[in-house]
Amino acid sequence: MPTGSPPIPAGPATAGPAGDLAPAAARRAARGPRRGSNERFPRAERLAPYLLVLPAVLVIAVFRLYPLALGVNFSFTGDGDRNGQPVGWDNYTALFADPLFTASMRNVGLLVLLLPVAVAIPGLLATFVYLRVPGHRVYRSVYFFPAVLSPVIIGAIFNLLLSFDGPVNALLGAVGIGPVDWLGDPGIAMFAVVGVHIWATFGMALVVFLAGFATLDASLIDAARVDGASLPKVVRHVIVPGLSRTIQFVVVTTMIGMLTSMFGLLYVMTGGGPEGSTYLPEYYIWFQQGQMGRPALASAASTVLFGVMLVVGMAQIAVLRRAGRED
Amino acid sequence: MAPLRAGRWIAAVPMAALAIATVYPLLFTANVAMKTRHEYVLDRFAPAEGLRWDAFASAWAGADMDRYLANSLIVVAGAVALLLLLGSMAGFALSQLRFRGSRLLFLACLSALFIPFQVIMVPLARTMGQLGLVDTYPGLILAYTAQFLPFTVFLMTSYYSGIPSEITDAARIDGNSVYGVYGRIMLPLGRPALLSVGILNALFCWNDVLIALLMMPSAEHRTLMVGVTALRGQYSADIPTFAGGVLIAAVPVLVLYLCFQRQITAGVTAGSTKG
Prior knowledge:
CATH class of the largest domain in chain A: Mainly Alpha
Distance between the termini of chain A: 47 Å
Largest sheet of chain A: none
CATH architecture of the largest domain in chain B: Orthogonal Bundle
Largest sheet of chain B: none
Protein name (chain A): Multiple sugar transport system permease protein
CATH class of the largest domain in chain B: Mainly Alpha
Number of helices of chain B: 13
Number of domains of chain A: 2
Structural class of chain A: mainly alpha
Shape of chain B: globular
Radius of gyration of chain B: 23 Å
Oligomer: heterodimer
Order of helices and strands of chain A: HHHHHHHHHHHHHHH
CATH superfamily of the largest domain in chain B: MetI-like
Helix content of chain B: over 70%
Number of helices of chain A: 15
Strand content of chain B: under 5%
Largest interface: A-B, 108 and 106 residues
Shape of chain A: globular
Subcellular location (chain A): Cell membrane
InterPro entries (chain A): ABC_transporter_permease, MetI-like, MetI-like_sf
Keywords (chain A): Cell membrane, Membrane, Sugar transport, Transmembrane, Transmembrane helix, Transport
Family (chain A): Belongs to the binding-protein-dependent transport system permease family.
Number of strands of chain B: 0
């Protein structure tokens, strides 16, 4: 019996640790004052937690969850003349027959292929910062700052940098490589935009990696070094396994970032061109909804994008889980 | 880690190069903005002849940036205030109070984290239209609140979970109502998290262009970032003024970053360690 212990605090929150140890009788006794306080303002108090959560839940339910259901439903109705009529899978058929949409899906594939690069760069840099390369404190701040700039501003700046007679081509010219039409060549434009996106966001992943490093056991790395392990070996056998959760987080957030936060860059830098080569599903959705007045078709594209994100997210988590278990 | 010393200097070279690559685009743009059109056409790389602010002034006056800035400030302030209020109320209740269904409500809030705006933008635009909220300040404020609330609720809940429930219990014994505990104790205690989440949300809302384009179609209601997208067309022949306008839009964010770097990085990493 916790006779000597102070009275267990009242309140609707959980009983303290002492309450968990006390036998049932003591717990019942301890609940006494709580019931008393409930009786002072019984209904209002019981409803209070719900009233506190309600506004947030209402906003999320009405403006996030409900539209998701509405959108899926919407994608099976028609546009224009057939507005509101059920059309079955017509929108999806039209979608996959549209070269712009298939181009956007191909670009999604390209993003998946470039994902390892987008994760490895900040990972490697974070390793250097963690190993206290001279000036590492400054680098951390400098690398992060493009991440706070709007994609619109970054896109505008890189419109200048990547212009045909801009600094990037001047730099390439200095080492004897001919000028590249970064944003005008259908074979290159997408790589240019993704490159700018990585430039703008690697600082974000770097900071996440560093937070992961902070949880790493430094003595393990020291021990490996003492045993004569080279840096690549330390990375492969100590750092990567120790950071598996962080890597998983970065992989998923980077992929989601590439699928959902490149609109500003595309809008400012290429407008989907040249020849529709820089379309991504998010840009296609906006284009069909805002420019072409085909909301039902856009909804179908939204549903496909949501499916892609679910699949990509789950596949990555599954792969990384398995990799983590092998270590 | 003494044996690494030589390797550290080798790594420092690409690190420094990358740091330059990170800063240079902004410096180049600032340099362009200080030039006259003539200087820019002659040589776009040479340093400007002095600190000249004409381009900033003409972008400010010629591209309606004052109006766009006001629009942005109204919308960001409204959305952040609403996010912090709703997020802290929900976070307090979900972490400190035990009630039937709390877990389910928390999961409902979290699940919305995985619904990107692009997936719901068509039906959302329609719902907003039916409510008469398209092209109004409350409409965009509400859209931003809905977009960033799941993240805010998540962070506030995890922050308040770290506060021992004994504090709530003691305050209740002293005769505070649940609302009293929230207003008198949890809001002040939550200040560090509110600051971090508030700044992050301000950045998100300030930097957004897609939601603003969709919800605020008319030119007079443009936010600053939507205004920036229009600069290129307006000043295609006057690149220094274009650069000046872009930089005007970038400065508030850079100042915010310099002042609150710690809070911003803390907010970004908050989700990663708790997974």
